[in-house]
Amino acid sequence: MKKVMQIALLLIMFFFTTVVLSGEIDEDPLKKLFAISGIDKQIAEIPGMIQMEIEGVTRQGSPIPDNGYEKLLGVIGSTFQVTEILSTISTEVKKNITEPAINKLLLWYESDSGRMLTQAEENAATPQGYQEMTDSAESLLADEKRVKFAKKLDNLIKATDMAMQIHENTTAAVFMAISTVLNPSQELNMKDFKAEMSAQAVQLRTDIEQITILSFVYSYKDIEMTILEKYYKFLEQPDTRKFNESVMNGIKTAFNQSIEKMVHSLVATFSKQEKKS
């Protein structure tokens, strides 16, 4: 679980910011925005995050037979389809953002300032960057001006909220998947699961918020404050906020849809196997 949360946090570090991609970018404005803002790349990580969490849980003692494990991964791959998740996000964005607004957002992502932030974020979002960030955490958090900006940025784009949402959705998916595989004919006990999650929520949020702030400080440590304030002004514009909120809502909807399909598929698959045995 710790490793999955780490991945989720690394995704959040630059979820709403730029990513340089090789090759041609689709000329459709929304697809182009998804590509250049990094959303395509981040959504593609979701199935792997769930698989990694399942691998961690099984290593800790959940007795899933080898043949069951392979079937489980197959179901996850078929129900957490990246193209479907992106389609759901796209539908949500189109309900709230006009094409002229999308083109306006693209101007920032393609600007010199946007590209400068891109490079800083790419350097931070690597295993080496993560290690350097944790090693230098004390000195980074001693920079009061940048910590203050990082907190302001987190409050604006709701990065901690997004990280919490990804963590909760991923954990729920893993719990449902493993519980269904082990007891396909037994109803899921979501009440106890939610109670346990609720008991951990305050401490988890505190931990995620601290790492999110540290991530922002580290990512932008070499960027002039004037550029960062310019970036903040872009993020607080109504169209940018609508876009970010639409993406978050789209991810939440897509996760719920995928989890429902996953559970139904697992019940069907493993109920048959249980009857045969």
* Low-pLDDT windows of residues: 1-5, 13-26
Write the H/E string, N to C.
Answer: HHHHHHHHHHHHHHH
The largest β sheet comes out as: none
Percentage of residues in strands: under 5%
**How does the helix and strand content classify structurally?**
mainly alpha
Global geometry: globular
What is the share of helical residues? over 70%
Q: What's the Cα radius of gyration?
A: 20 Å
Mean of the pLDDT scores?
A: 81
Number of domains: 1
Task: Tell me the number of strands.
Answer: 0
How would you explain this protein's 3D organization?
It is a single chain. The chain is mostly helical and 277 residues long. It has one domain (2-276). 81% of the residues lie in helices and 0% in strands. The protein is built from 15 helices and no strands. It has helices at 2-13, 29-36, 39-43, 46-59, 66-79, 82-96, 99-109, 112-124, 127-135, 137-141, 144-157, 159-182, 190-219, 225-235, 238-276. Helix 6 (82-96) packs antiparallel against helix 15 and helix 12 runs parallel beside helix 15. The longest helix has 39 residues, at 238-276. It is globular. The chain starts with a helix and ends with a helix.
